[in-house]
C-alpha cells in the first residue's frame, strides 16, 4: 500500500479547511508549508489536526544546527507530527532536526533530489545518493525523492532500504501515479487535487495506490 499525502498549498485557512474537509476520507496525511503558513499563521496546524491525520511541516529547513533546532521545536509545539529538512546543510544540521522530531515523538524526512527540472543543476546523480546516505546515517525516517524520475527513486531506494520514500511530482508536474506508486511509501499530490472542481473526487481517483 502506498499512502496519499495532500500538499495543501492554498493560501487561506478557510480554503485549507474546506479542501481538508472534502478530501480527508481519501488521504493519509496532509503536508503544509510556506504558502499556507505565511498566508494564515502557524496556528492553522491546530485547526487541521481536527482531521486526525499526520500533519507534515514542509519548511525544507536549511540552516545551522541551532537554528534548525529552534525551527523544529516551534513546528512540533504547533502540533505537527513530522518535519522536512534539506540534507545539503550537512550531518549536524540534519541531526538537529531528527533529534527534535524524535524527542517529540515525530518524524523527520530529508530532501535528496527535487522533482523540478532545475534540481538537476545541483542535486542530481551522485549528490542525491550522498544525501540519501546521510539521511540513513542521521537516523532520519525517510527521504523526499522525485516522482518525475522513477529511475532515480529506484537508485535511492537501494541506499535507504526500508526507510520511507515520500515522492512529489505526480499530476501537475507530469509524474505518473501508476508508475511511481509501487516504488514509494507516500505519494505527495497538490494542485491536481486542490485546484480540481471536485477535490474529493480528485483525491478519490488516487485510491488505487492505497489498496
Ligand atoms: O506539484 P503539486 O501541486 O502536486 O505539489 C507538489 C508539492 O510537493 C508542493 O508542495 C511542492 O512544494 C512539493 N515538492 C515538490 O513538488 N518537489 C520536491 O522535490 C519536493 C517537494 C516537497 O514537498 O518537499 C518536501 C516534501
From TrEMBL:
Pfam families: OMPdecase
GO molecular function: orotidine-5'-phosphate decarboxylase activity
GO cellular component annotations of the record: cytosol
Catalytic activity annotation: orotidine 5'-phosphate + H(+) = UMP + CO2
Binding-site residues for substrate, renumbered to this chain: 9, 31, 115, 190-191
Pathway: Pyrimidine metabolism; UMP biosynthesis via de novo pathway; UMP from orotate: step 2/2
InterPro entries with a match to the protein in the record: Aldolase_TIM, OMPdecase, OMPdecase_AS, OMPdeCOase_dom, RibuloseP-bd_barrel
Orotidine 5'-phosphate decarboxylase domain residues: 3-206
Superkingdom classification of source: Archaea
Keywords annotated in UniProt: Decarboxylase, Lyase, Pyrimidine biosynthesis
EC category: lyase
Family (UniProt): Belongs to the OMP decarboxylase family.
Protein name as annotated: Orotidine 5'-phosphate decarboxylase
Organism: Methanoplanus endosymbiosus
Encoding gene, per UniProt annotation: pyrF
Amino acid at each position: 500500500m502506498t499512502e496519499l499525502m495532500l500538499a495543501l498549498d492554498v493560501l487561506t485557512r478557510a480554503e485549507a479547511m474546506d479542501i481538508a474537509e472534502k478530501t480527508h476520507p481519501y488521504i493519509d496525511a496532509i503536508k503544509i508549508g510556506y504558502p499556507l503558513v505565511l498566508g494564515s499563521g502557524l496556528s492553522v496546524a491546530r485547526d487541521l489536526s481536527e482531521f486526525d491525520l499526520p500533519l507534515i511541516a514542509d519548511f525544507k529547513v536549511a540552516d545551522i544546527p541551532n537554528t534548525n533546532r529552534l525551527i523544529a521545536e516551534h513546528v512540533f509545539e504547533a502540533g505537527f507530527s513530522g518535519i522536512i529538512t534539506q540534507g545539503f546543510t550537512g550531518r549536524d544540521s540534519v541531526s538537529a532536526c531528527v533529534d527534535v522530531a524524535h524527542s517529540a515523538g515525530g518524524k523527520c524526512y530529508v530532501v535528496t533530489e527535487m522533482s523540478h527540472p532545475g534540481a538537476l543543476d545541483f542535486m542530481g546523480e551522485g549528490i542525491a545518493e550522498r544525501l540519501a546516505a546521510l539521511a540513513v546515517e542521521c537516523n532520519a525516517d525517510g527521504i523526499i525523492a522525485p516522482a518525475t524520475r522513477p529511475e532515480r527513486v529506484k537508485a535511492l531506494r537501494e541506499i535507504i532500504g526500508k526507510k520511507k520514500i515520500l515522492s512529489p511530482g505526480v499530476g501537475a508536474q507530469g509524474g505518473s501515479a501508476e508508475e511511481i506508486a509501487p516504488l514509494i511509501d507516500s505519494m505527495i499530490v497538490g494542485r491536481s487535487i486542490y485546484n480540481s472542481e471536485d477535490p474529493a473526487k480528485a483525491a478519490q481517483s488516487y485510491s488505487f495506490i492505497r489498496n
